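agent> fetching stored inputs for the magnesium ion docking request
agent> found them:
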Amino acid sequence: MHTDSKIIWDKCLLYIRGQISEQTYKTWFAPIVAKCFKDGVLTIQVPSQFFYEWLEEHHLPLLKQAVLKEIGPHGRLEYAVVIDQGNKKQKPLTVNLPTYPGPAFRGVVAPEKMPGYGSDFFQLNPNYLFDNLVEGSCNQLAKSAAQAVAINPGGTAFNPLMLYGRVGLGKTHISQAIGNAVRTSFPDKKIVYISSEKFTTQFIEALRSNNVKPFTEQYLAADLLILDDIQFLSGKEKTQEIFFHIFNHLHQSKKQVIITSDCAPRDLKGLQERLLSRFKWGLTADLQCPDFETRIAIIQSKVAADGINLPSDLIEYVAQHVDTNVRELEGVLISIIAHASLTKKDINIALARQVLKHIVQHQPTTETTIEVLQKQVAAHYNIALEDLKSKSRKKEIVGARQIGMYLAKKYTTHSLKSIGGYFGGRDHTTVMHAIQVVEDCLNTNAHYAQLYESLENKIKLSIVD
Ligand code: ADP
Ligand code: MG
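agent> prediction call returned; pasting tokens
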């Protein structure tokens, strides 16, 4: 029995490994042990409840594919979570958690009504809510417009509502938060959430099986239609046409349409002009990268939601190093927590550095000290080292000092408070402000960024030595 399950699981693993990054594989799949295989049910053992939830939330489609491939359409997966390792006298305590098909939500068109289409269309993720969306200047407009739409779908000037921004900045989260809020306040309204990719696949399938009419009718019946990642429709003329038709119908009947895209409408290449011009009827709101303080708030809210306590210097460290998008930020946090729970190590900066080394490129391999950094900064900006550490408010000294603090945060493991101590006894809010100023200048001032980069390059070289 054991060998059976191991052979099957090994095959699943082989398939899974080919689909994801090595890091993800090592973190989430390598620790899994096959337990048994009986009546088409493969039971795998995972290290914790948290681990199980993470797999279900993030890798379910992949697991399903693997099971389908290796066991067949009736194959099922069960998880065994070891609650207590036990000892010689007592066996380990485990609970089994079967995988159910996702719950069908009230008001959401039931996928079963659409023969031939896969099972997870139209579903809203119940975790995407306004309540757990941290607000910052990066998403203020989008969030407030979305909230207005959720209170009065189809009845505001924001129709369509178009949200755009780079990957991992919260487009899906916000658009589904609208869906979830509408579902609660207006249980009778029909909500349809669909990614453009699935919309396209469905449409092609409908064409093939002569089912375009029922396909279209499902969408025409929506009170709220969310089409996610519309950039995917670029160049797909026929799919755009059918969407254009659906859009016009819904808009005329004062039904709400929400669209997301990874770039501004003007940059959406390969989308028909007549479709693009429709977006101007409503509101277009962009999502930006969250700033340092918002990143800290996001991390705090995520760990609070998971009931985990992280030291504040570690939170700062992660917020400082992972600055491109929220999904990456989440991924890093989860990796840190997973490493800690698997290796039974404490969650501290050393562990964070170890995890980040695999993920973030500019992570130095060896430490530098604040004193060394201060010397490099003073020399580069041609000011006296004493001034850098003084309380002087002269403009060029303040500027260099801010860069010094920024670099200290980036290249050492000192907390904000400790860094403040090195730069004339300033408190952590001053350091935080300095980091924000430097980030803003780097984003907006090319000359400033150039000067900074040449300094950073020198620092990197000195660290490698
Ligand atoms: P996109 O659709 O733009 O690629 P997502 O909506 O999938 O991005 O967001 C990526 C992840 O980051 C999600 O898990 C989401 O919950 C989270 N996220 C994004 N923005 C925020 C925020 N402001 N506060 C909390 N979590 C966020
Ligand atoms: Mg998305």
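agent> quick read of the result: The mean pLDDT is 84.
agent> awaiting further instructions
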